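Morning run. Coffee first, then this:
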Amino acid sequence: MAILVNDTTPRNQYTASAGQTAFTYSFEIFEVTDVKVYNGTSLLTYASSPSNGTQYSVSNAGVTGGGVVTLGSGGASNGNVITIIRDIPVKRTTDFPSSGPFNIESLNTDLDKIVAILSERENEISRALQLSDTDTTTTMTLPVTATRANKILSFDSSGNATVVAKPSSSSITINTGTAGSSASGSVSYSDSTGAIAIVLTIPRGNTGVTGNTGSAGSDGSDGADGTSTKWSTGTTLPSSSLANGDLFLFTADVANGLTWKDTNGSSNLTSASKGDIAQYQSSGTKWVKQNNIVGATGAQGAQGAQGAQGAQGPAGDGDMSDVIDDTTPQLGGNLDMNSKDIITTSNANIDLAPHGTGKVVIRGNTNSGILILNCENNTHGQQIKGQPHSANISNELTLPAGGDGELVSTVATQTLTNKSIVATQLTGTVDLARLSDASTSAKGIASFASADFAVSSGAVTLEAAVPKTDETNVYTAPQRNALTADNDGSLDMNANNNFKITAGGNFALTFTNHADGQSGYVLLVNSGGHTISLHANTKGSATTAATLTTAGTYLVSYLSDGTNAYITNSVVYA
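And here it is:
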C-alpha cells in the first residue's frame, strides 16, 4: 500500500458550529487507527459506524491527500474545538529476507511510514519550548522532581533554566528619611524563601530660613503646659484629642470622603494617596497636607557598657603521647607503628644500632614515601617502597647481622598483608610461607593437579590431555557431548552445541544465550505436523517455517553472530 506522503503538518484544528459532524484532515494515514480526534481535551473513540458525538469514523486511509473525520449523531456543539492529529504506532511489522526476492510494495509502505512518523515528531518539536536557532547554548534541562516541586520555572542571568520559590510571605517597612531627602521605595524577592519585602522612605523637608525678629510683646500670663507633637496613622483623619502640630500618615489610598486642605491651606481636599502626611493646625481647626516635614533632632544616646570577657574555652582533649614526629629515629630493637596514632615522617631512615640485630615490625603505615631499614654499618639495608595510602605491611622483616639487600613492591594498590610480593631485585631471604594463594587480582602461590602438568628445571609444561590455544587439539570420546533434548523449542546455547526436539505441540524455534560464532545442529522430530514458527532472532528463508511444519524429521543447522541464529533445514527424512 505505497502512497505519496506530502510535507504537510499532521494536525488540523477547527472551531465547530452547532451540530457539525464532518471535519477534513489534510495529511496521509495508513490505517483508520492512525488518527486521534479530540473535542477540547477529551479523546473521542473510533467506531466504523459512530452513534453519537463521542465517536467518529475515518475515510481515505491509505490514500494520498487526506480524508474526512465524521462524528456520530448530534455532532459537536457550537464553539467546540475539534483537533485531529496523526499518531502512527512506532513499530516494525515487516521483515525482509536476507536473500532472494522481496515485496517492493511492503518496502515502500515501510519507508512511507518512517517519513510520516518523522513529520509527527517535527510537529511535536515545533510546539515545544525550544531555543532559537541564533540563540547561544544554554542549559534547558529541568532540575530533578524533588528540587522543582512547588517551585516556579525561571531563568538565571545566563538564560539557563532553573526554579525559584513561590511567593510565600510579604512585609512592608516605612522609614523616615533625613532632612531634605527624597521619597524612595524598594521591593526585594528571595528566590530561596519566596519572601517579598517592601521598604518605603518618607521624606523630611529642609529647615526653613529664620524669620525676622519681631517686636517685643508685653508680658503675658503663664499658660498651661502644652502637649508634645504626636504621630498617628490610618485612612481616616482623627477628629478628637488633637493638638497643634499633630501629624497623620495615610497608610493606604483614600478615594473620597476626606475633609482637609492643600499645601497652601486654601483648597479643600477629599482624597489622599498612600504616604501622604497631614498636620493639624489648631488656628482654623483644620488638617493641612504637608510636603516637607522636619522633625526635631533626638538627643544622642549614651554609650553602651563594655561587654564582659568571655570564659576561657575548655582544654583540648588531644593526646600527643602516641605521636611519632622524628625524621631520624635511632633504635636497636622493635618499632611498632601500629600503636601510634599519627605518623608525620613521610621519608624516614630508621637505623638499627651499629653491630645490632633485631627486627622492625611495620603495621598500618598509610603514609606515602620510602621507608629504609639499615642494619650494621652497611649503607644499603632493606628498602620497602610503600604506595601512598594503599600499602598495609604486616610482615615481620628480620634483618640478619651484616645482611643487606633491596625488596621493592611494584603493585601500586596491593595490600601486602599475607599477600604475594613482586620483586624486581632481591638479595637475602624471603619467607614464602607468608605469601597467599594466587587470585585474579594478585600474584601468589598457584597449584595444579599433578596429572595436568610437568615441571623440569622450573619450567611448567601442560600435559597433552589439557587443551592448548596455540596448536590443534584432538578430542576423544570424553570431550564429545550427547545431544541435549529440549522439546519446548527454546534452546540454550550455554547447554550444548547440538540439540534434539521431539515436538509435542506448536512452538516458536528460539535460541537463547547467543554466543558469537557458535554453530551446531538441531534434530527436529515433528511427526505430528505441529506448527513451527521462527522467533524474531531466528532467521530463516521465506519457506523455512512452512517446511518444518510439514510432518517429518529434519536436520536444522545454525550459526549465531551473537544476536541472531541463522538456520538452514534439510529435506524431510523418511
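The first strand starts at residue 11 and ends at 15. Good start to the day.
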